[in-house]
Amino acid sequence: MKQLFNFNHLHYLDEFLLFNSNDYQTIKDQISHYLCPHQFDVKAVTDLNTRLNGFSFGQSALYDLKYSAPVAITLDEDSPYYLFRITLEGQCKVEYAQNKVVQSVGIMTVTHPHTKSRIMTNHHCRNIILKLSKQEVETQLFKMLGYRSTEAVIFNSGMSCTDEGLSAIVETLNYLCHAYYNIQNWSFISESFTAYLIELILLKVPNNYSLKLNERRQHVLPNYMKKAQKYIQQHLRANITLAELSQFCAVSTRTLQKGFNQYFQQTPIEYIRDLRVELVHQALLNSHEYETVSDILLENGIQSFGHFSTIYKKRYGCLPSQTLKMRVA
């Protein structure tokens, strides 16, 4: 990419120094803490200075990372984060699966959660790194598609992102830095901003859902499907039967089932179940300290706690009680 991008507001990252060190073990420990677990090797007999600036917002974070010597980093497979990397200075090579990308100034690459990756930098390499949780990316994809998909999001790397797409992402990161530095009570709007940022990335960075997302944006649901969505949203905490849903939409149950399979690739029951799981998840995250898991499940129309917990753990990797403990902590 030859285009020069406007990084005017990224200088606010200079105000948020996380660490600056010449000690090998300190560098390794701090990078593992802030970004993800990894193996770290210096590729030249020279002093290594590493500086990391940045801040977190929700489960996400934005970093400015600079090495003063060539290094090789191998990311472990247990990381639950996407790392979007834009090079500002120097050069690095990124390898994952069967992909190899030489990343120079203005190029963006992506390393994926639960995927072993290797990054090799040259002398004085500096990258802006956007860290997004797999869970938040999947939640936003669910909202955009209208149904839950079991296939992980895989982004293309390197030259596949257009200048227009990367420019839009850079401008949004500029705004993020400006807002975080200047806006009081930023935390109150960071959740909605994160959702917007992930939506932008899903639309602008080519991935295995790009075609479906573009079709979804252009596709107009028939009226009976819109009525079904509205009814489900209004009665999500109640016991919704297929018969009453069909009656409300003024179509046969067979037509309704075919509509959900055609437009959402799910049965009506699966669609309702996914919305309820998401509803409970958000309720757990935003609960008060005095609320119990049982309270929250009952308030949201869940009667079979054991069965629901199994579904919840399959979706989020933990039990509802563990999510509640994290929120209270």
TrEMBL record:
Source organism: Acinetobacter sichuanensis
Name of the protein: AraC family transcriptional regulator
Organism phylogeny: Bacteria, Pseudomonadati, Pseudomonadota, Gammaproteobacteria, Moraxellales
Keywords: DNA-binding, Transcription, Transcription regulation
Transmembrane feature ranges: none
Gene3D superfamilies in the cross-refs: Homeodomain-like
Keyword DNA-binding found: yes
GO molecular-function terms, A-Z: DNA-binding transcription factor activity; sequence-specific DNA binding
Top-level taxon: Bacteria
InterPro entries: AraC-bd_2, Homeodomain-like_sf, HTH_AraC, HTH_AraC-typ_CS, PchR_regulatory_protein
Domain HTH araC/xylS-type: from-to ranges: 226-326
